[in-house]
Write a structure and sequence with these properties.
The protein is mainly β. The protein is built from no helices and 11 strands. The termini are far apart.
Length: 120
């Protein structure tokens, strides 16, 4: 079993910055992909950014150039540095991890969610 614990959300003015963190713990063989999703009220959950264990990353078009995803494999932790925040970035942000268990099966885990609110 794997647990994901998120931190770093909060309230910030437009143009400001926040950094989210997500730490994975538990029994696993490897974490293949870690990433961030977000969901605003009345909208579908969408991928924000993802990063593989090898270091490749992808971003939603709406956050390219403003957000940076990084990963510390030794700590099983993924970060999302959010700069130049806009009101439309307001959402609950969820950490996600795709894990290979010690039984060699693939599992998908989610964090508890953290609120990010960007005011005008």
């Amino acid at each position: 079993q794997v647990q994901l614990v998120e931190s770093g959300g909060g309230l910030v003015q437009a143009g400001g910055s926040l950094e989210l963190s997500c730490a994975a713990s538990g029994s696993m063989f490897s974490i293949n992909v870690m990433g961030w999703y977000r969901q605003a009220p009345g909208k579908q959950r969408e991928l924000v950014a993802g990063r593989t264990s090898g270091g490749s990353a992808n971003y939603a078009d709406s956050v390219k150039g403003r957000f940076t995803i990084s990963r510390d494999n030794a700590k099983n932790t993924v970060y999302l540095q959010m700069n130049s925040l806009k009101p439309e970035d307001t959402a609950v942000y969820y950490c996600n991890a795709q894990v290979t268990g010690r039984d060699w099966r693939t599992y998908d885990y989610w964090g508890q969610g953290t609120q990010v609110t960007v005011s005008r």
